[in-house]
From TrEMBL, chain A:
It catalyses: (2R,3S)-3-isopropylmalate = (2S)-2-isopropylmalate. Gene3D superfamilies: Aconitase, domain 3. The keyword Iron applies. Its EC number is 4.2.1.33. [4Fe-4S] cluster binds at C348, C408, C411. Pfam families: Aconitase. Residues 8-458 form the Aconitase/3-isopropylmalate dehydratase large subunit alpha/beta/alpha domain. Binds 1 [4Fe-4S] cluster per subunit. The lineage of its organism: Bacteria, Pseudomonadati, Pseudomonadota, Alphaproteobacteria, Rhodobacterales. GO terms for molecular function: 3-isopropylmalate dehydratase activity; 4 iron, 4 sulfur cluster binding; metal ion binding. It comes from the Bacteria. This is 3-isopropylmalate dehydratase large subunit. The keyword Aminoacyl-tRNA synthetase does not apply.
UniProtKB/TrEMBL annotation, chain B:
CDD domains: IPMI_Swivel. Pathway: Amino-acid biosynthesis; L-leucine biosynthesis; L-leucine from 3-methyl-2-oxobutanoate: step 2/4. Belongs to the LeuD family. LeuD type 1 subfamily. It comes from Roseovarius spongiae. InterPro entries: 3-IsopropMal_deHydase_ssu, Aconitase/3IPM_dehydase_swvl, AconitaseA/IPMdHydase_ssu_swvl, IPMI_Swivel, LeuD. It catalyses: (2R,3S)-3-isopropylmalate = (2S)-2-isopropylmalate. GO terms for cellular component: 3-isopropylmalate dehydratase complex. Catalyzes the isomerization between 2-isopropylmalate and 3-isopropylmalate, via the formation of 2-isopropylmaleate. PANTHER family: 3-ISOPROPYLMALATE DEHYDRATASE SMALL SUBUNIT, 3-ISOPROPYLMALATE DEHYDRATASE SMALL SUBUNIT 2-RELATED-RELATED. HAMAP family: LeuD_type1. Heterodimer of LeuC and LeuD. It holds the Pfam family Aconitase_C. This is 3-isopropylmalate dehydratase small subunit.
């Protein structure tokens, strides 16, 4: 048998049909749905008199629109948002899918709830009408975002029409320096390859620095595969993966666990597998980074200066000029002198317990800069509960952070958590596009520790300046 | 789905790289539970000022391009979110064809589900069509999907590549779900075998 990558193996295990031209029908093991990209799909089913083929493999949770303020039990004020969430409530009941309503403590961002509940398992195919579905690749699952028409297709047939992507290996060798996190890895990779560098590929992340990451960190890395243009990002499962999964509500148990484990242990790329593209980055070379522009590829170490349009080539010259104007930045300004108005810690990229611990480690015994707006939005009700149990919530509140309920929140600002025009935000989310966090809002992406450091100083800050590193 | 065979229309030039889906349709318009009516908000934040007035300089607000049916743009068009609201908004505005050097994966696939033809061409050829689009309403570009050609107003013919299956579906206006239902026996068979091999799924 010819050597295979992990992606090849998962693909082959889910191939229902392949036409001569390579157009394939792939079986889908888990279908996650949220309120924004599903109403038209369920409506399509209803109009055609179709049902959900595998409701037991379909999991719904509202996250994009939900308020994160403590009084959200009183309902959603914005009528359109409320209608969308109510539509999902109704569709979940009508079609009989698994569902975590807003009132359920397990509710949260769909990409945090899936792994937390044990729905996401190694070797699976996972889709969702959301580009950050790539997150689930951290388990060695083939996971990617789809459009609403495809959501309807998966609901009706439990399959997806696909053509196979190429294989790309991203290897992060060696060890990370103190203060450098999974977010710095994933941003640095995009900075290196560009936002289209992964187009047409499925990325497998590997190397010592990836192996050393926790499952939370691996989810952060895979989450942003889409920001590099890749269809999916994945990491081969190992003991850490199995330990994370074991005992989760929907993980296999007993004999089924043993059988699953036996298969999962085979899920790795063969040593002589073919890669269409290889990118290698030394872990030691990665610094704490921030974005300066309006594309996730606009990444620089915090020790750098705001670049000038002339530093670039081709279409990027005009794009950089437009970005700098939008961001209100002057070339040559040291990044750590850029003052911010707001800090947002949360999202499917960095809303897990480890992210909150990293922020708390910086914020403990410190206060946020006076006048700053700062909020922490846990990725799920269970993350929130755990953070409270561990005393992290007290640290955040004593520092001056607003401690919120779970949801997507200011990552994409579909709920009331938004930036005003010109407001500058240190954010742990995934996109710094124009208007992403609110019309005219200015987003700098970074790790939770870096966002916490920025909250303390009121400007973009090198977290290492605030860390007590034992010699 | 609406068929796409031939199109002759005005092309609007949007010479920006990395046009993302937040630009194409900002999130406040994703709250709809319908597919239609998004055209008025296409490129909303570039097209209207804070008070909702049209920004005259934006290409789709210029008289020559108000009825554009083709959009010519820079590389990595449609990057970002999976929102199908992006192609819905493009189509609802009246644009049936996008021409760019490259596209983001999910957006590209979403176009085909909505009767929109995304054409990928080398940068030099996009540059020719961008210059053509700059000429305004007097320069109509012709697209022929069957022949896989783009013809400029000066008669220059540019060939483009497209996946044969996607081309077939677009030409015939085929519904993916109906096509897949024809393979239901294969799905049943796969499901039975998979649930024996991996019962924990």
């Amino acid at each position: 048998m010819s050597p295979k990558t992990l992606y090849d193996k998962i693909w082959d295990a889910h191939l229902v049909h392949e036409a001569e031209d390579g157009t394939s029908l792939l079986y889908i093991d888990r279908h996650l749905v949220h309120e924004v990209t599903s109403p038209q799909a369920f409506e399509g089913l209803r109009m055609a008199g179709r049902t959900v083929r595998a409701p037991d493999k379909t999991i719904g949770v509202p996250d994009h629109n939900v308020p994160t303020t403590l009084d959200r039990a009183k309902g959603i004020e914005n009528e359109e948002s409320r209608i969308q969430v109510e539509a999902l409530d109704r569709n979940a009941a009508e079609f009989g899918i698994h569902y975590y309503p807003v009132s359920d403590i397990r509710q949260g961002i769909v990409h945090i709830v899936g792994p937390e509940q044990g729905w996401t398992l190694p070797g699976m195919t996972v889709v969702c009408g959301d580009s950050h579905t790539a997150t689930h690749g951290a388990f060695g699952a083939l996971a990617h975002g789809i459009g609403t028409s495809e959501v309807e297709h998966v609901l009706a047939t439990q399959t997806l029409i696909q053509s196979k992507s190429k294989n790309m290996k991203v290897e992060i060798t060696g060890k990370l320096a103190p203060g450098v996190t999974a977010k710095d890895i994933t941003l640095s990779v995009i900075g290196e390859t560009g936002t289209a560098g992964g187009t047409g590929y499925v990325i497998e992340y590997c190397g010592e620095a990836i192996r050393d990451l926790s499952m939370e960190g691996r989810m952060t890395v895979c989450n942003m595969a889409i920001e590099g243009g890749a269809r999916a990002g994945l990491i081969a499962p190992d003991e850490k993966t199995f330990d994370y999964v074991k005992g989760r509500p929907h993980a296999p148990k007993g004999a089924a666990w043993e059988a699953a484990l036996a298969w999962w242990e085979t899920l790795k790329s063969d040593a002589d597998a073919h890669w269409d593209k290889v990118v290698t980055i030394r872990g030691e070379d990665i610094a704490p980074v921030v974005t300066w522009g309006t594309s996730p590829e606009d990444v620089l170490p915090i020790t750098a200066k705001v670049p000038a349009p002339e530093d670039f080539e081709g279409g990027k010259v005009g794009a950089a000029k437009r970005s700098l104007e939008y961001m209100g930045l002057t070339p040559g300004t040291p990044l750590n002198e850029v003052e911010i108005d707001t800090v947002f810690i949360g999202s499917c990229t960095n809303g897990r317990i480890e992210d909150l611990r990293a922020a708390a480690a910086i914020l403990k015994g410190r206060k946020i800069k006076e006048g700053l707006r700062a909020m922490i939005v846990p990725g799920s009700g269970l993350v929130r509960a755990q953070a409270e149990e561990e005393g992290l919530a007290d640290i955040f509140q004593e520092a001056g952070f607003d401690w919120r309920l779970a949801g997507c929140s200011m990552c994409l600002a579909m709920n009331p958590d938004q930036l005003s025009p010109g407001e500058r935000c240190a954010a742990t989310s995934n996109r710094n596009f124009e208007g992403r966090q609110g019309r005219g809002g200015r987003t700098h992406l970074m790790s939770p520790a870096m966002a916490a450091a920025a909250a303390v100083t009121g400007r973009l800050t090198d977290v290492r300046d605030l860390m007590k590193v034992d010699a | 789905m609406e068929k796409f065979e031939k199109l002759s229309g005005v092309a609007a030039p949007l010479p920006l790289i990395n046009v993302d889906t937040d630009m194409i349709i900002p999130k406040q318009f994703l709250k709809t539970i319908k597919r239609s009516g998004l055209g008025v908000n296409l490129f909303d934040e570039m097209r209207y000022d804070d008070d909702g007035n049209e920004i005259p300089d934006f290409v789709l607000n210029k008289p020559a391009y108000r009825n554009a049916e083709i959009l010519v743009a820079g590389e990595n068009f449609g990057c970002g979110s999976s929102r199908e609201h992006a192609p819905w908004a493009i189509k609802d505005f009246g644009i049936r064809c996008v021409i760019a050097p490259s596209y983001a994966d999910i957006f590209y696939n979403n176009c085909f589900k909505n009767g929109i033809l995304p054409i990928a061409l080398p940068q030099e050829q996009v540059d020719i069509l961008m210059a053509e689009a700059e000429k305004g309403a007097n320069a109509r570009i012709e697209i022929d999907l069957e022949a896989q050609t783009v013809t400029t107003s000066e008669g220059e013919v540019i060939r483009f590549d497209i996946d044969p299956f996607k081309k077939h579906c677009l030409l015939e206006g085929l519904d993916d779900i109906a096509l897949t239902f024809e393979k239901v026996a294969a799905i049943d068979k796969f499901e039975a075998a998979a649930s024996a091999a991996r019962p924990w799924v």
